[in-house]
Amino acid sequence: MIRRILTHTAAATLVIAVAAFAFQSMASGGGGMTRTAWTLAAAIAGGDHDVD
Amino acid sequence: MTSTDPRPAKPRRTPGRLLFLFAFHAALSGAFIVAYLTGDEDTYAMHQFAGYTALAALAVRLLAGVLTPVGPLRLPRPSRAATLDWLRRAAMGEARAWGQRSPLLAWMALALLAVVGAAALSGAVADFVVPFEKLHEALGEASLPVVLAHVALVLALLGLKKAAGWRARSHTRHEVIAP
Asked: pLDDT category, B25, cuts 50, 70, 90?
């Protein structure tokens, strides 16, 4: 049961991440996927989630 | 009812309802992971997309809970008496308490629904009312420890259940070997 829940969660995370990535690419107004990918990588690597 | 009576009959989980719960858990946790990792101004559209996905998953779950107040889809209703009783029995090493579903899970589910729901809702409000952004950020930060506590609780209960199984098997072996 736990394994099934984890598999579903991993699949959903992937689907939502891909959909959100596509949404960001479209929203950036022709910025392109490469730029979005770099921005995303920088955001995750930076890990800046603190309250200012 | 004596202590030797079998467990009371529970409403049977239909595969559809179980699948719904799996889908809800997957959608909410997936959306939370993506939203948390993209909580940066440069990835705002991704964060927004994941946040609204989480909000939609929570809305569907709440609706299902309101429409079906009985059965597996009902909203968590933690009981203080049941929790204290389970904690006492588990601390005393009662194997049945170790193996059964813990009432702590209902408390955890409620805490998760509250904090993740508040984070998602405040994010949606912050899209229109800018001062809500600080509250949304604080709630987002507060969500992570609750999510990690949920994972830790599930793992601990799984370990307890396995320990109960080993103990039961060990007792059975002793009964077979002993004259």
From this structure: very high
Strands (E), A1-52: none
Say if CB B57 and CB B27 are below 8 A apart. yes
Asked if the Cβ–Cβ distance from A8 to B23 is below 8 Å, we say yes
Give B85-136 as a DSSP string: HHHHHHHTT-HHHHHSPPTHHHHHHHHHHHHHHHHHHHHHHHTT-TTHHHHH
Q: What ipTM is given for this predicted complex?
A: 0.75
Q: The pTM is what?
A: 0.79
Per-chain mean pLDDT for chain A:
77
Measure the CA–CA gap between A24 and A12, rounded to whole angstroms: 18
Q: Min CA distance, B110 vs chain A (Å)?
A: 19
- Copy the structure tokens of residue B49: 């997309």
**Pair A25, A14: CB distance under 8 Å:** no
A23-46 as b/e, with b when 16 or more CB fall inside 10 Å? bbbeebeeeeeeebeebbeebeee
Tokens of B174: 């002793």
List pLDDT tens digits, range A1-52: 788 889 989 999 999 999 998 888 887 765 666 777 777 777 777 655 544 4
The distance between the two most distant Cα atoms of chain A, rounded to a whole number of Å, is 43
Q: Is A3 on the interface with B (CB under 8 A)?
A: no
Tokens of B40: 């940066």
